[in-house]
Specification:
By secondary structure, the protein is an all-alpha fold. It is 66% helix and 3% strand. Strand 1 and strand 2 form a beta hairpin. The longest helix is centred in the first third of the chain and has 31 residues.
């Protein structure tokens, strides 16, 4: 469904001339598709608004797909927000040396403040939707959990990310555990890496490695873990982890590359 078609359907259902005592005939599947399309189009506020209006305006109850699509939209919005914040910081730093650079930076910052809602905490919205989903006795799937963990990771909320990951195996609100997939664990390790929590990242890696089963460390796991260890000055542990991953076939040997400044750098 195109963005234009999505907004048109939403526009028509809002302004329909049905009798006030009846609901517009819109199925939950159609609304779920619109929520997902809003997320892909960078309109998380509309996705959440539509989710909230499903019972009152359309007479249908949100299902697990409704919440999953809205949470994914919040996750994407949090990552985009953090990307815009980084661009703002770079423009302030690199563009402050010239008048033209300062004007460009000011214009860009003014634009992004309004268009990307940099003051909104989308990771909190994702957490809130997850809690509400459980209260309504809907079972979040691994993709839903990984999206919430990823949103926390983007916002630097590594403690929250770990809390969500741990809740998957002992959540009493839904009566049964949801085994985490590789995306969930990798997002949590990445959150620990960004938060400087190298010990927690290493513990997650060890637990995943020793548990066996289908969820095994991969290139992304090792990459995030090595960055966390090297940033914390744990070079010996990083070297041992890399050698172990190399023996197990998780990564390829380091290769030397020359960056754009002519400096030698290591790459996997």
């Amino acid at each position: 469904m195109s963005v234009l078609a999505t907004f048109l359907l939403y526009f028509l259902t809002e302004r329909s001339e049905w009798d006030q005592k009846s609901y517009p005939v819109v199925s939950v599947d159609a609304l779920n598709s619109i929520i997902a399309a809003c997320g892909r189009s960078g309109c998380p506020d509309m996705a959440v608004k539509l989710l909230n209006e499903m019972p009152s305006k359309y007479g249908v109850c949100a299902d697990d797909r409704s919440y999953r699509s809205a949470i994914i939209a919040c996750n994407q919005a949090e990552h985009e927000k953090q990307r815009q914040i980084r661009i703002k910081s770079e423009l302030k730093t690199n563009g402050s040396s010239t008048r033209g650079g300062r004007e460009h930076a000011s214009a860009y910052i003014e634009k992004t403040v309004h268009t990307n809602k940099l003051n909104l905490q989308w990771w909190e919205c994702a957490l809130s939707l997850l809690r509400r989903m459980k209260e309504e006795e809907l079972k979040p799937d691994p993709q839903t959990y990984s999206s919430v963990i990823s949103a926390c990771e983007a916002a630097g909320q590594w403690q929250r990310a770990l809390g969500i990951l741990r809740s998957m195996s002992k959540d009493s609100t839904i009566g049964r555990a949801t085994p985490p997939n590789l995306f969930c664990v990798n997002a949590a390790i990445s959150a620990c890496e960004k938060g400087g929590a190298w010990l927690e990242a290493f513990e997650l890696y060890e637990r995943m490695k020793n548990r066996g089963g289908a969820v095994r460390p991969n290139f992304i796991t090792i990459s995030s873990l090595l960055i966390a260890l090297e940033s914390a000055g744990q070079r010996e542990l990083a070297e041992n982890t890399y050698k172990e991953a190399l023996r197990e076939g998780m990564v390829s040997p380091w290769k030397k590359r020359i960056d754009i400044d002519g400096q030698t750098m290591r790459m996997m």
